[in-house]
Write a structure and sequence with these properties.
- It is a single chain.
- The protein has about 525 residues and is of the alpha/beta class.
- The protein has helices spanning about 1-25, 45-60, 70-90, 125-130, 130-140, 160-165, 205-210, 220-235, 300-305, 310-320, 325-335, 340-365, 365-375, 380-390, 400-405, 440, and strands spanning about 25-35, 65-70, 95-100, 105, 110, 130, 145-150, 180-185, 240-245.
- The strands form 2 sheets. The protein has a 6-stranded mixed β-sheet, sandwiched between helices.
- The longest helix has 24 residues, at about 340-365.
- Residues about 10-25, about 255-275, about 280-290, about 410-420, about 430-435 and about 475-515 have low confidence and may be disordered.
């Protein structure tokens, strides 16, 4: 009886501790669906995608803010308000943003497209759209535990005239160069276009709604399943892509949810996170997985060994799930399948081109764009690369820091102003005996404390020189560091000259450093 009571108490305490740990993590989500574009053909599915994702995230314990068909100003204000809510929740908050709608890249930079946009030329996009980097910077400006940004935003370019000069799809964004704790997911690979879908939801959102509900599935494994599912649903035309700098583990659900969607039309006020069994990465169930193990990537040779002997379809599913260049290169080397080889080769060629483009954009020099054009003279990014090269051609090129340092003298870092010249090195004192100093040798020990004679005073004979004590207040002030003598400089000289008298004397440097 006593043992049963003790076990019951322990179980109750564990439950309370687990609940307290789960409560320590707040989950906030902003869901945006852009369908009702005014200047171009509306998109059917983004609004449906946003509603379905709001429902899912509400079941997963997120406090959801839904917004749809936002103008440029409204989108910026909505993101700003959301960041303020995340900041109010505290540093243990998981902040998630889901966006469905049009997205474009201009000059290597990604933009989300508001519904009130009406560009007449390519240069209008940066003025009328919202930069993805602005959204990321806003999220990272407030303390949070992690930031998850899911973008179903790579649909076809709705502006035909602009599409002839701008690159397709979105450019690479590497989360590893940003703040730690960030996860970015794109509905298709860089430089490719995503499909809106013929059903109620896009292929990307459809796959995400299924994978995220799997109990105990990490976010990395969930999006591996999304990649394979979307690739199959689109016959290889679309393959999602992710970039992560997460340092903690995350799961949408740790246990199966008892809640079921009552309607796809969800309002923020209808979301009740406490009514579902959502995953808490700091809960008792997830505490052991809070520290993410370091994932070891296979090399090209290792992938060849792993893939060898497998059917083309099975091997293709494996490389799509992994999403690495080495995996695709191994497949292209080993297989000659009529169906899967063109898919793998297309993905690999496009991805390598987008990596080269990302490098040129980061370098942002005429020489860098020229290198890209030499490697890819006939791609969809060629017009943009030529334009940027021409724009930067007359900009001065700065030498790398290492080359500049090699041109500097050995003592280039030393101060050049005489008033700040440091004392000479002790090694130079060895030169003092070589210099004639007859009068200095015959001077009494108190010589260093005497004031200098007037400039125009006659020099008396040595045998009749009379030394007098300096008047009161004349000489170095107690408590103030004294500058060097004949050799050294220093902040203050060996004496304080009277008004209208020069500041250089035989015993001190004064405001200028002493010298030989």
């Amino acid at each position: 009886m006593l043992r049963r009571t003790v076990l019951s108490a322990v179980a109750a305490a564990s439950l309370l501790l687990g609940t307290a740990a789960a409560m320590a993590e707040s989950r906030m989500a902003l869901v945006i669906g852009q369908s009702a574009y005014r200047a171009v053909t509306p998109l059917p599915n983004p609004t449906n995608d946003a509603k379905a994702m709001a429902q899912l995230l509400g079941e997963a314990g997120f406090e959801v803010t839904s917004a749809s068909d936002l103008s440029q100003n409204a989108m910026r204000q909505t993101v700003s308000d959301f960041a303020a809510q995340v900041a109010a929740k505290g540093k243990d908050t998981v902040a998630l943003v889901f966006y469905a709608g049009h997205g474009m890249q201009i000059d290597g930079e990604n933009f989300l497209i508001p519904t009130d946009i009406d560009p007449k030329r390519e240069a209008d996009i940066p003025l009328q759209a919202v930069r993805l980097n602005d959204i990321l910077n806003t999220l990272t400006s407030v303390p949070s535990r992690m930031r998850l940004v899911l973008l179903d935003a790579c649909r076809n370019n709705p502006f035909p005239d602009i599409g002839r000069t701008a690159g397709r799809g979105l450019a690479i964004v590497d989360a590893k160069f940003g703040a730690p704790g960030t996860f970015l997911s794109f509905s298709t690979s860089p430089g490719a276009e995503a499909e809106d879908g013929s059903g109620a939801n896009s292929p990307y959102t459809t796959a995400l709604l299924t994978a995220a509900k799997e109990p105990g599935l990490s976010i990395e494994d969930a999006f591996k399943r999304v990649r394979v599912s979307v690739n199959k649903a689109t016959d290889g035309r679309q393959t999602p892509w992710e970039s992560s700098s997460l340092t903690d583990d995350f799961r949408f659900f740790t246990v199966a949810s008892d809640a079921s969607p009552k309607s796809t039309d969800v309002k923020p006020s209808d979301v009740k996170p406490t009514e579902v069994k959502a995953a808490g990465t700091k809960s008792a169930e997830g505490a052991a997985a809070a520290t993410r193990p370091v994932e070891q990537k296979r090399t090209l040779e290792q992938w060849k060994v792993v893939l060898k002997g497998k059917s083309p379809e099975a091997a293709h599913d494996m490389i799509v799930e992994d999403g690495s260049v080495d995996a695709y290169e191994a497949f292209v080397t080993l297989y000659n399948d009529a169906v899967f080889l063109p898919r793998a080769r297309t993905w690999l060629d496009r991805h390598l081109r987008m990596i080269a483009w990302n490098k040129a954009v980061i370098e942002n020099s005429a020489a860098g764009y020229r290198v890209f054009l030499l490697a890819y003279p006939d791609s969809d990014l060629t017009p943009t690369a030529r334009k940027l090269e021409e724009r930067l051609r007359n900009r001065p090129e700065f030498a790398p820091a290492a080359a500049v340092a090699s041109l500097q003298p050995a003592n280039a870092s030393a101060p050049t102003c005489p008033c700040s010249t440091p004392p000479a090195a002790p090694a130079k004192k060895t030169e003092k005996p070589e210099r004639p100093s007859k009068k200095r040798a015959s001077a009494p020990p108190q010589r260093s404390s005497l004031p200098p004679p007037p400039r125009n005073a006659p020099v008396p004979d040595e045998d009749v020189v009379i030394y007098r004590r300096p008047p009161p207040g004349y000489g170095p002030t107690p408590g103030i560091s004294i500058g060097g003598g004949i050799i050294g400089g220093g902040g203050r000289g060996g004496y304080s000259p009277p008004p209208n008298r020069g500041s250089v004397g035989p015993t001190g440097g004064g405001s200028r450093g002493g010298r030989y």
